[in-house]
Amino acid sequence: METEMTTPLPTGTTHITPAVAPAPADDVESAAAAALAAADTGPVTTNNTLSTGGPPERNMTISTWGSSQGSPNLTPDLSASNAYGLSEGFYRGLVSFIWMCIGAIFGALCRILLAQLFGEECKNPQTVGWLKAGGALCVTAQGEGDVQGGIIFADLPANLLGCFIMGLFQSSLTLGLPVTAPIAFVNPTSSFQRWDVMHLAIRTGFCGSLTTFSSWNSEMVIMMFGTNYWPDASAAARSFFGYLVGMETALGSFVLGKKVAVWIHRWKNPSNAKEMDALHERTEQGVHINRDLPEFERRYLPDLRMEMKVTMQDAERIRILSRWRQTTYNARRVGHKFLPLLIEIENAVLVRGEKIPHRADSAARNLGWDCDALMEWALGMPYQEPKVVEPQNSATLVQLESSFLILGLLIAGLVMGVIFIDGVSSYAVTYRQTLFVVLFAPFGAVLRWQLGRLNGCFTGGLAWLPFGTLFANLLGSIVSIAMVCLELVMPWDGFWQVAALRATKVGFAGSLTTVSTFVAETNGFMNHPRTQDLAYKYMTTTLFTACVLASFTYVGILYGVENY
Fold first, then answer.
1. What is the separation, in whole angstroms, between the first and last Cα of the chain?
2. What are the DSSP calls for 153-211, one per residue?
3. Residue 290 buriedness (CB in 10 A; 0-12 / 13-18 / 19+)
4. Cα angle for residues 276, 280, 286 (degrees, 5° grid)
5. What is the mean pLDDT of residues 241-257?
6. If we measure between CA atoms, which residue out of 439, 477, 468, 506 comes closest to residue 101?
7. What's the mean pLDDT in 2-18?
8. Structure confidence at residue 18 as a pLDDT band (50, 70, 90)
9. Calculated CA dihedral for residues 115, 120, 126, 132, nearest 10 degrees
10. Residue bearing the bigger pLDDT, 308 or 407
């Protein structure tokens, strides 16, 4: 027999008082603080795991699935497919490197095709063969000062698409959803949630190479200076609006992607949608929500106002958990002195399946928390088979052999195209240059990926700065504008000379720099009132510094070529 019951259970009151008369607040807090200081036993060992009489794996992770469905283990087991004696870290890094290159190749190719579709064929007619039927969309310009509307720069469509996909592939934690899932718009039980290497390839490899900061910056500098040593006032104003339009549209696309991801998640998970509404209500009331807890406990303990179907037998058992909730009710407030202690205890018992650490247990009992009720609830939680769809052989999704094979076929196809497309027509030259440019994309993307390790490398007042992303964008901008200058002022003849310049500019520098990650970091700062000023500092620092460095590089090369 099932009946619909609305939490809180078993009582129906909104404000719950402890079942026992509490001691004076000062005495309780002093005793709890003393217990924490005097009984620090360090990390909990595996000897503290609870035994429920279920399968062995259940005894190790008592509430991975909770009393209902919980959060799956999202890390693929790479060791199963490592037959080369490599360490797990090196193996994972090698596979990630390969898929980063694959994502970069497709991202750069997509960026070039979009630039051709929206503007290249209009600037140089009869050069893009796949658009020879007249299907070009004359929307963008290359940033020349004599072209009206140049602020709609050539790579704007690619930046918009890349930022949208980046927003779409955000995690549930980033989007504030109640469940834990690396990709929010994908079903939480889908096996794709385990493909962390593919997530990296899509976000950092594909989106990072599909969007480009260096080409955008170079086109604004060219628009500003033309062939002069000093910017024209009118062109400088247009360039300023070019930066403004590029930043606002990229941010808007990223936010739209996030909104679509949330909409898809709510549409496919109506129960989670109701929980999210209740969660926002309680969060606005100042209640902390521990998203790591299993589903039922995550909804019941913070007293979310939503209906849950439980049997009468479960309702009797819930009375046990209600004792724990009643005695810890006030500690769930955001900013409460003992909220970290509460999170530590519930994560240990309900998430990791461990006993309450001794120091935490002593402090909790001094506060009047019913630890016995929590342990009784945890020991009685029924085991359920995980509902996540397990891949037949999850390690094969990131096997080294198949990854090398895919990357090898891609590179071989690009190299063969460069070698065998040897015609003299404008179409053949464009195809050949495109394939050659794409070959340089993995170098830029991998360098950007590694530079990302520098994010947060500073201490003190600059600890917030994503220095790795900033450095990648500045370095790529300098390389890009230098290649533009050389292409403009030097007499280059032959395919290989021109192709090498464009490959360095579009392939390497274009993939080294990124708008999608830059926008995601900026939006992350904007989402929190306390860090909104950092978003504007980060945007201003990046755009202004890139413009200044590229301007000096541009003028310096022009002056040097003409005078020396």
1. 91
2. BTTHHHHHHHHHHHHHT--HHHHT-SS--SSTTS-TTSGGGG-HHHHHIIIIIIIHHHS
3. middle
4. 140
5. 95
6. 439
7. 39
8. very low
9. 40
10. 407
Give CA 517 to chain center in angstroms: 8
In the chain, what is the greatest distance between 2 CA atoms, to the nearest angstrom?
91
Instruction: Tell me the pTM.
Output: 0.76
Q: What number is the average pLDDT over the span 20-29? A: 49
Q: Please tell me the distance from the alpha carbon of residue 445 to that of residue 200, in angstroms, as a whole number.
A: 12
Sign of CA dihedral 426, 427, 428, 430: positive
Instruction: Count Cα neighbours of 129 within 13 Å in the Cβ-side half-sphere.
Output: 11
DSSP string, 344-396: HHHIIIIIS-BPPPHHHHHHHHHTT--HHHHHHHHHTPPP----S---TTGGG
Sign (positive or negative) of CA dihedral 379, 382, 384, 386: negative
Give dist(CA 205, CA 109) in Å, integer.
Answer: 12
Read off the tokens for 507.
């392939």
- The pLDDT score that the predictor gives to residue 127 is 57
- Residue 143, CA distances (Å) to 8, 93, 489 in order: 62, 39, 17
Helix crossing, 467-489 with 441-451: angle to 10°?
Answer: 150
**Which helix (DSSP H) or strand (DSSP E) does residue 314 occupy?**
helix 312-327
CB 354 within 8 A of CB 48: yes
Q: What is the model's pLDDT at position 209?
A: 96
Give me the half-sphere count of Cα atoms (radius 13 Å) on the Cβ side of residue 265. 32
Determine the residue type at 173: L
Average pLDDT over residues 290-312: 80
Least confident piece of the model among 114-118, 181-185, 329-333, 460-464: 114-118
Whole-angstrom distance, CA of residue 177 vs CA of residue 262: 8
Q: What distance in Å separates the CA atoms of residue 318 and residue 9, rounded to the nearest whole number?
A: 7
Q: What SS3 class is residue 212?
A: coil
According to the model, what pLDDT value does residue 394 have? 38
pLDDT digits (tens, 9 = 90+) for 386-412: 444 333 333 345 678 888 999 999 999
- With cut-offs at 50, 70 and 90, classify the pLDDT of residue 441: very high
* Contacts by residues 309-318 (CB-CB < 8 Å, ≥ 24 positions apart): 309/2, 309/3, 309/4, 309/5, 310/2, 310/3, 310/5, 310/9, 311/1, 311/2, 311/3, 312/1, 312/3, 314/67, 315/3, 315/5, 315/9, 315/10, 317/377, 317/380, 318/9, 318/10
